[in-house]
Amino acid sequence: MRTAVVHAMMAGALWGAVIVTPSLIPDVHPVVISCARFLVYGLFAVLVALPRARQLLGRLRKSDVLMLLELALTGNLVYFILLSAAVQYAGVAIASLINGLIPVAIMLMGRKTSGGSSGSMYISLALICVGTAWINVPAIMDIFHGQGNSDKAFGAFLAGLGVLSWSWFALRNAGHLKTLRFSPSEWSTLQGVTTGIVALFASIGVCLFNPQILPTALSGGRMTVFVLVILFLAICGSWLANGLWNSAAQRLPLGLSGQMIVFETLCALVYGYLMLWALPGANEAIGILLVLGGVAWTMSAQGRRAAVA
Fold it and tell me: Do the beta carbons of residue 135 and residue 294 sit within 8 Å?
C-alpha cells in the first residue's frame, strides 16, 4: 500500500502544477489550452503505443472503447474546461474551495464500495471539509457579506459540475482498473490515445465555429511559453500523472484512493506560495493540517483493518 500512496501523492503533485501552470498564459483561452494539451497528450500516447499497438488493439473490447470515451470526456477535456472557466468567473479561491471537495464527492458517490467503516469515513470527511473551508475563509466571508455576484455564482456552479465530472471519472476508472485487464501504464496510454481523438474533434469544432479564440496574435516569446506549458501539461500533467494515479487506483481501496486527490489542492497551494515568494497565513496553515489529518485518519484506519485481516 505504501508504494500506491506514494504514486498517488506524486500524481497529486503533478496535477497541482496543472492547476497553477495555466496562470502563466492568461492571454490564451481555456478551451484552447485544454484542446492543445490533450492533442499533444494523444500524440505522445500514440508514439508510446506504436511498438505494441497490435497487441493492445487485439485486447480491446467494445466495453473498453466506450469506457475510454467516457473517461476522456469526464476526467480530461470537460473537467479541465470547467475548472479553467470556474477560475475565470469565480476566481481561484472559490474554485479551489469547491474543487477541494472532490474527495468528499468520491467517497459519498462510492460509499457502497469504499471498503471502509462509516464512522472513520465521516470523521475523515469532516476534517477534509472543515480544512478546505478554513483555507478559503476570506472567500466564504465575501459570500456571507453579499459581495458575490452573478459571475461568481456561475463560476461556483461550473466548479461544482467539474467536481461531479472528475468524481465520476475516478469511480468509473478505478472500477475498470480493478478488472486487471490492462496494466496502469497500458490503460493510461489508451486513455491518452482516446483523449487525443476527442480533443482533435473538439479542436476542429473550435477552428470552424469559434476561430477568434485561437492564439494567433501571440508574440514569439509568448508562443514559446505557450508551447512549453502545453508540453508540460500533456506529458507530465496527463500521461505521467495519469499513469501514477492508475497505479494507485488499482491497488488502493476506493475509500483511500478518493482522498489521495487532496494532494492536488495542497500542492497547488504550495506552488502558488512559491510563485509569490510568500508563506501561508494562519487560515491556510490550519486548513492544510486539517486536510492532511483527514487523509491520515483514513490511512490509519485502512492500516488497522489490513493488520486485522
Answer: no
270 CB-near residues (< 8 Å, 6+ apart):
16
The region, left, alpha or beta by phi > 0 then psi within -120 to 50, assigned to residue 115 is: left
Distances in whole angstroms, Cα of residue 157 to Cα of each of 30, 162, 272: 17, 9, 24
**Which candidate, 8, 46, 21, places its Cα nearest to that of 227?**
21
* Proportion of the chain in helix, strand, coil states, percent, rounded to 5: 85, 0, 15
Can you tell me the mean pLDDT for 131-160?
74
pLDDT confidence bin for 294, thresholds 50/70/90: confident
Give which of 303, 281, 296, 304 is closest to 134, Cα–Cα: 281
- Spatial distance between the Cα atoms of 180 and 159, rounded to a whole number of angstroms: 32
The confidence band for 222, taking pLDDT boundaries of 50, 70 and 90, is very high
Rounded alpha-carbon distances, angstroms, from residue 222 to 51, 135, 187, 269: 35, 33, 34, 25
Confidence of residue 66 (pLDDT cuts 50, 70, 90): very high
Distances (CA, A) of 171 to 63, 75, 115, 140, 205: 16, 10, 13, 29, 29
Q: Is residue 70 within 8 Å of 175, Cβ to Cβ?
A: no
Q: Is 50 exposed, middle or buried (0-12, 13-18, 19+ CB in 10 A)?
A: exposed
The pLDDT of residue 256 is 66
Question: pTM score > 0.90 for this model?
Answer: no
